């Protein structure tokens, strides 16, 4: 009996010690191989950078950890300024478009895409001139998205927003504006899961639920998919039926959070047919877009959606993977 009690107390002591020593700093990341730095040491940096944009968490100078920006915000917080901006650009648009509305009708009939592509306001793409597709992932996020759209409206450009379905309901007004102004909404899964870790049914669910959420908010169903982290394997390739859009310029905007580096990464590399990867969640990306949009326009680039770019450069097929549309 005495011996049994001794063993019991040793076992209890071991159990107690184990309980207070966590096996991994963050239980949800136990499957990550790279060691995560101690969160108490990080200031103005990422605590789990290896997880990539949309997943990694940023620690500010006070040690506050931010998840994905804007995730917890309700639309009501930003809706008044959102609506004002929307109204303003709608007015501008009406003025711009009035003179060319007749050509627009013909164009949309011919293209046969009236169901998925909203009526365009007299914009014409010259297939012989260079074009670039700017893409913004991980939104919607109205504070940055509206800034980007204001600038695009000013310079007559369009962009593609690969959105996360779980965020759609909170930013319905912003999504509606994207459609109304001729931008493209792409599918970035329902809750930004890395699809290479899922089975076929789960992959299809991530894609379908995002499409449903965007459709519920806008009446438009995304036609293109961007894989979170760009991660794919055979199961992903077999189960994603839509064209998968990668990128040819990675700005690393999410990682540097540096406006100037983001601008330079585009302007020093850009060429006709590029797909540029940026992220909608960061104010520094919004600020960079305000420089990139006029500079590319002045350099002669037409800013087009991914579907527009594809349309003039050979098109896309279901299940195909594309990282650029060079001539
Ligand atoms: Zn992402």
From TrEMBL:
UniProt organism field: Lacrimispora xylanolytica
Keyword hit for Ribonucleoprotein: no
Region of interest (Disordered), ranges: 29-132
Keyword Zinc: no
Keywords carried by this UniProt record: Hydrolase, Metal-binding, Signal
Name of this chain's protein: Polysaccharide deacetylase family protein
Compositional bias segments (type: Basic and acidic residues): 70-96
Stretches assigned to the NodB homology domain: 130-304
Signal sequence residues: 1-23
Gene3D superfamilies named in the record: Glycoside hydrolase/deacetylase
SUPFAM superfamilies documented for this protein: Glycoside hydrolase/deacetylase
Superkingdom as given in the UniProt entry: Bacteria
Segments of skewed composition (Low complexity): 99-111
Record InterPro entries: Glyco_hydro/deAcase_b/a-brl, NODB_dom, Polysacc_deacetylase_ArnD
């Amino acid at each position: 009996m005495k011996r049994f009690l001794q063993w019991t107390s040793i076992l209890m002591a071991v159990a107690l010690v184990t309980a207070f020593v966590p096996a991994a700093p963050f239980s949800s990341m136990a499957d990550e191989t790279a060691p995560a730095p101690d969160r108490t040491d990080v200031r103005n940096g990422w605590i789990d950078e290896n997880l990539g944009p949309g997943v990694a968490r940023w620690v500010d100078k006070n040690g506050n950890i931010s998840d994905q920006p804007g995730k917890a915000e309700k639309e009501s917080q930003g809706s008044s300024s959102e609506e004002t901006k929307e109204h303003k650009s709608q007015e501008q648009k009406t003025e711009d478009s009035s003179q060319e509305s007749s050509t627009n009708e013909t164009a949309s009939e011919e293209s046969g895409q009236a169901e998925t592509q909203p009526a365009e306001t007299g914009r014409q793409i010259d297939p012989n001139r260079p074009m670039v597709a700017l893409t913004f992932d991980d939104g919607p996020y109205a504070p940055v998205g509206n800034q980007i759209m204001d600038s695009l409206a000013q310079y007559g450009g369009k962009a593609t927003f690969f959105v996360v379905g779980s965020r759609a309901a909170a930013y319905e007004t912003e999504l509606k504006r994207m459609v109304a102004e001729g931008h493209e909404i792409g599918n970035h899964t329902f809750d930004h899961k890395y699809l290479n870790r899922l089975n076929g049914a789960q992959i299809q669910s991530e894609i379908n639920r995002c499409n449903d959420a965007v459709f519920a908010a806008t009446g438009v169903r995304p036609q293109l998919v961007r894989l979170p982290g760009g991660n794919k394997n055979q199961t992903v390739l077999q189960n994603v039926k839509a064209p998968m859009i990668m990128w040819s310029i990675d700005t690393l905007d999410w990682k540097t959070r540096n406006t100037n580096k983001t601008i330079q990464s585009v302007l020093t590399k850009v060429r006709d047919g590029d797909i540029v990867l940026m992220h909608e969640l960061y104010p520094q990306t919004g600020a960079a877009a305000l420089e990139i949009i006029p500079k590319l326009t002045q350099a002669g680039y037409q800013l087009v959606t991914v579907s527009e770019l594809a349309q003039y450069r050979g098109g896309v097929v279901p299940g195909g993977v594309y990282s650029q549309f060079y001539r």
